[in-house]
Design a protein that fits this description.
This is Small ribosomal subunit biogenesis GTPase RsgA. It is a single chain. This protein has 3 domains: 60 residues, OB fold (Dihydrolipoamide Acetyltransferase, E2P), CATH 2.40.50; 145 residues, P-loop containing nucleotide triphosphate hydrolases (Rossmann fold), CATH 3.40.50; 59 residues, Ribonucleotide Reductase Protein R1, domain 1 (Orthogonal Bundle), CATH 1.10.40.50. The chain contains 10 helices and 13 strands. A hairpin with a 2-residue loop joins strand 1 and strand 2. The longest helix is centred in the middle third of the chain and has 17 residues. The chain starts with a strand and ends in a 5-residue tail after the last helix.
Length: 293
């Protein structure tokens, strides 16, 4: 029995890397009976005695998993936002950040198209960059030229399994192509009529990028909060999670409760009021969703 990691999945075949070899495998029937679907990123035990085709017998415990793209054991998400075209959207960025925190995936924020900004617009974006750095997030603000010389960006990928996340048209494919030019991912200009770009993929694969691995499919295609409870949401905002121990009531949702330490620091400016307003908006969304049976 050998061990390895699934690097690619296509039409029921799983390509498992073990040492320097990649072996084409199928899942054994026992996995189907257990209703377990192998995912790219899984660490598996497999029979690799036949070089043409092996069989996966078991899947080791997962640190985390995403449904879209279907990938497991992700270390970090490179969340790409554009400063302009499309305009920077802090509400959407915070939505991505909540989902990464929920999955215990470390986020790295990359804001693109710095070179297209006026001085006033740049000042505004740099203020947002400072805000997210204060929260504790690694944040990069880059120009098109830095995609041509991406050494600083490559350092974020080293030794990590990453997914790329962000709305269409922000430069995800351009970023991946800069890190690993051999990918030759297609990039489409933003449709001026729709204000968005296009990206189609047929399968998920972990590819080498900056001495690490990255899923060549954008992550977090679904941005709803179906997996987040109202009690968990505060833990997905690091600045709120840090303060909750000082709230008067255990289980405080930092909304209308008296003696809330979070509301107190928001009112005196120690915590971003915009981030807090996004928290309240997400909280309302979670509370108003219909129960599923």
């Amino acid at each position: 029995m050998a061990e390895g990691r699934i690097m690619k999945a296509i039409s029921g075949f799983y390509y498992v890397k073990s040492g320097d070899q990649v072996i084409q495998c199928r899942g054994r029937g026992v996995l189907r009976k257990q209703k377990i679907t192998p995912l790219v990123g899984d660490f598996v035990e497999f029979d690799g005695t036949h070089p043409e085709e092996g069989y996966i017998f078991s899947i080791k415990s997962r640190r985390n998993m995403l449904n879209r793209p279907p990938v497991a054991n992700v270390d970090q998400a490179i969340i790409v936002s554009s400063a302009i075209m499309p305009d920077f959207n802090p509400l959407l960025l915070d939505r991505f950040l909540v989902l990464t925190e929920l999955k215990r995936i470390s986020p790295v924020i990359v804001i693109t198209k710095k070179d297209l900004l006026s001085d006033k617009e740049l000042e505004s974006i740099e203020a947002y960059q400072d805000l997210y750095k204060e929260v504790g997030y690694s944040t990069e603000l880059i120009s098109s030229r830095e995609l041509e010389e991406p050494d600083r960006l490559k350092s974020h990928f080293s030794g990590q399994v990453s997914v790329i996340a962000g709305q269409s048209g922000v430069g995800k494919s351009s970023l991946l192509n800069a890190i690993n030019p051999s990918l030759e991912l297609k990039t489409d200009d933003i449709s001026k009529s729709l204000g968005r770009g296009k990206h189609t993929t047929k399968h998920v694969e972990l590819v080498e990028a900056g001495n690490g691995l990255v899923a060549d499919t954008p992550g977090f295609s679904s941005l709803d909060f179906n997996e987040v409870t109202s009690g968990e949401l505060g833990d997905c905002f690091p600045e709120i999670a840090e303060l909750k121990v000082n709230c008067r009531f255990r289980g405080c949702l930092h909304n209308k409760e008296p003696g809330c330490a979070v509301k107190e620091v928001v009112s005196n400016g120690e915590v971003s009021s915009s981030r807090y307003s996004h928290y309240l908006r997400f909280l309302d969304e979670i509370k108003s969703r219909k129960p599923r049976y």
